[in-house]
Amino acid sequence: MNKFFQHWQQWFTAYSRPVRYIRHALIWLIIWILSSETAHFGVQDKPSIDLAVTVLIALSTLLYFYVLGYFVFPVFLYRFRPVWLVSWLILTYWFSYLLNRLVFIELQPYSLSATSYLSKIAHMVQAAGPLGCFTSIKVALWNYVLGLYMVTLLLVMKSARDIISNRNRSIRLEGDRLRLERDKLALEGSHLTLELDFLKMQISPHFLFNTLNTIYARVVDADEQAANQVLRLAELMRYNLYEANADRIGLELELNYINDYLQLEQARHAQWISVTLEADDRVEQYQIAPLLLNTFVENAFKHGVRAGNFSYVLITARMDGDTLEFTVQNTLQPETRASGRKSGGVGLVNVRKRLDLLYPNRYALTTGPVKDQYVVTLRLQLEPLAVPTR
Q: For this UniProt entry, which segments traverse the membrane (predicted)?
């Protein structure tokens, strides 16, 4: 049964506009038939007179139905504005009387006889005057039966349908609100879980960071070079723990982080590598997203350095106005050159995604082999370093 209603709802949604047109066409047809029957059995005059009364009833019924059902009721009834609603209903009733009175008076000379139904009604409304619908019960009933009884039936059915539709819409909106609230609570719960997991994960890095400081204090007198390596490793960890969580960091700090990384790699590969980092003085005036540049440097060592083969890594960072030009050049190893494989892989893909999110339409990145070296060039428009306010 539920599947049947789901299919019915899907079909009705897909064909809602044609269905609406068909519904209105049926309403017009029913109104015309009822108007014709009312004129034929009520007036019983010449065919032309009956046709004129039929047109009067049908057109006025459609007019009142659309004005009241699609304007007055939505604006004043469903929003509960009783004064305006009553005013509109009174004006509509009066306008209906004036229109019916005018038509019957104008048609009276063409009636079958002076004693016909149309002639009697014409004399009655002419004697009652323009306000007869408010001063005579008989005139008021005639006016309602002639021009408003069908409108009343149609408006009752439409109002009931509108109320049910609004109620269903309110139920759906409330259901959507509850689902959004439930999803929000679930996200908040997930966020709290992630925060707890993050705090748990911080225990190990903090322990390792403190241990490195202890090792540095013990070996600094015995082996200064080893102590400096430990110190640089501690600085890398400090940057990852305390600085990299910010949205932006000073470009100079980011380059210092890269320099510490280079020194560790230099010590690890010793005589097999030459490492150079060149940066102009203007880098200290700008800020950048943290850990954005180091992937290029890590790739240079991962794909460009092999034990037993002399290699080099050259890094330059220069400012052209507010645009950083960051270049990483490294040796292109023979096996990489022979296979034609591209360096970078997932790391470069992730960096591009970060650049698209953080610097949309503000960067240009080129990567690829140039003769016997692999070159990465990033041009990135940066913001000036924020000056702290006192």
A: 21-39, 51-73, 85-104, 139-157
